[in-house]
Structures are given as C-alpha cells and as structure tokens.
Amino acid sequence: MARNIPDVDIDIYDPKSLADPYENYRIFRDAAPIVRLPKYDLYLMSRFEDVRDALKNWPVFSSASGVAMNDVMNDAIAGGTLGSDDPVHARLRSIVGRPLAPSKLNELRTLISERAQGLIARLCEQGSFDAATDLAQFLPLTVVRELVGLPEDGANKQLTWAAANFNSLGPRGLDLTESALPILNDMVTYARECSPEMVKPGSWIAQLFEASDKGEIAYEQVGALMNDYLGPSLDTTIFATGNAISLFAKYPEQWKKLRENPNLIPNAINEAVRLESPIQGFSRKLTDDFELGDQQLHAGARVLVMYASGNRDERRWGNPEEFDIERKNADHLGFGHGVHTCLGANLARLEINALLTALIPRVERFEVHHSERVLNNILRGFKTLKVTAHPAKVMESA
Fold first, then answer.
1. What pTM was computed for the model?
2. Which of 194, 191, 104, 98 is nearest to 143 (CA)?
C-alpha cells in the first residue's frame, strides 16, 4: 500500500484547471513530492528533480503498459515507441527516428528556411494575423505533412487526429477523453489499413514499410509506429510556436534582446518550451515498489509525471514564472528526459528557429488582440492568437 501520500482534491482535468494549471502545480509541489488525486486514483509527481529522476528511471517508471490514464488508449499505443521500454523501445526508436537523424534534418534546413521566409514576408505584409493558425501551423501542415507522406484523405485529418491522440490519453469519463476515443479509433483503423501503395514514395511512412520488408519490424507494427508521426509531429510544434509568440508579446524586452542577439534563438526556444510546455505530462506504471524520502508507492501504481510543473519548480529555477531568454535552461523537461525524450525535438527546434530568424529583421514587437487556449487533456497551446506584428523601423534584408 502507498505510505505517507497526501490526497490533494484538485481536478486537473477540469476545464478551468486545463486553461490555467500553474497554481494547481504549485499546490502539488508544496504539498509533498508525491500526491494522490483521489478522483482518479492517480499519483502525481510535480517537482523538477523528482520528475527528471522518474523519467530517467524507466525500468521502474515504465512505459511498457502505456502512458495514458485509460486502458483503451494504452492498448492502442502498444507496440509503438510511446508504449514500450528498452530494449524494444530503443530498436523501434532507431527505426522511427531515421528521418529525424541530424544528417536528414540538415537536408531539410534550406527548404524549411525558404518556406519560413516566404511565409513571414506574406504575414508581415498583412500586419495582423492569427499566430496560432496562420503562423504556427504553416510548416507542420506543409513541410512536415509532406514528409509524413499520407495520401490526401489521411493528410487532411492529421490535425484532428493529433488533438484526439492526446485527448485520448486522459482518464475515462471526461468529455474530452470520450469524444476523442472514436476519432482515435478512426486514426488507428486508417493506420492499420494503410498500405505501401497508398503513401508517398520515400516518405517517412514509406520508410516504415521498407523496414518491414527488410524484416526489421513486423508488417502489423507499421500502423502502431505511424502514430509517432500522425500525432506528435504536428500539435506539439504548433503549440510551442504559438506559445513562443505569446511570450514575446508579453515580454517585449526579451524580443528586443533576441533581435539584438539572434544567437540566443536556441536558448529562447528552450525557455519558451520550459515556461509553456506543450506537453504537460504523461503517466508511468510502476514495475516495483518505490520510495521517495518517507513516501512509498506500490508496484502497479500509475503515476503522472508532470513536465510542466517541474519546469516551473522554484526549487530548480530562480523566478521560474519569468520568461528570460538568457536563462541557463538546457536541462528543462519540456521535451521529456532520458530514453523517451521527444524524437521530434530537433525538428521542432529547426522549424521554430526558421520562423524566429525570419521574424527578427521584420518585426519590432508583437501585440496580442485576442487569444483563446485549446482545452486538451495533455497539450497546452492556443486555438487562436490574433496579433499585430509591428514592422521594424529599419527593414533589414531577410
């Protein structure tokens, strides 16, 4: 049985909590290293060091039984990288990650940069636009969707599938979870019925079928591994981009600092992901009893490990709720940690870097006119972020 684990009666999946979760995270951090959410019989870790160590300790904090808070979704992701541990996970990750290797991303750098420059030129000519859609969705819905390689009927559903994919990770009984599960089933069915003839030659999914032909994976595994491309490759980058623009609008002195020193772009991306983590957290299932100080959890317990809370932990960060692009932040948890670190993190960085690089010479400051957050069990980002990009006083060459 669990020992010395306090109940904290906060519903983190309530719409108000999803819209503004950070005060709840502070309450969890202050209550104890591990707390229990009685409504869902889930345990939760919220402090930076504890979350990082749990993610590192994958043999005990296991993903092999899934990372969702319900069995339907955990069954759906079984056989993929998200629902496995090493050595199986490492083998599958090496196959899924081939198109995301540094050498492959270097080949995309020019294409992504050119697409970003063209987009930003058009948007800045307009002056006002929706940064959540017009800006943040552009590269994922053009470059990345082309690379994934689904035919048009599947490609057009990817955004819907991606949102449902993450909502389906929540506990059963929630409106967001229940409404997402049929959409998830549609995605899973499509993936299972997808064939090599349907996908774009040379695409990421085509390479999965090639791996099957070589005997590296079973043909039946292709559908499960497709999930790594259909879900995470879009929404996480889209939300990270919108969050970054929102933060630069809120902290104009940080945008000024970035314009004066564009070499800070990689660190600025890390800081935006730290402060507004697109993925708030996943769960793990304990394979053994676990002790943390005087607290104990039993084997079989399901534990939420909250990246977003750890990223704002006062025990790790000075002024954690401030956006500071010069902060030493390379160890943030926004892309996960350890063997399950986000496969697409470097692609996301490449896309956001290209957009910021294109914006810097053209935009003096951002002004937000209207914003609306997406409600999602796992993700944090904007549904709408209407901004004006005020032109730079001196228009430098892009």
1. 0.95
2. 104
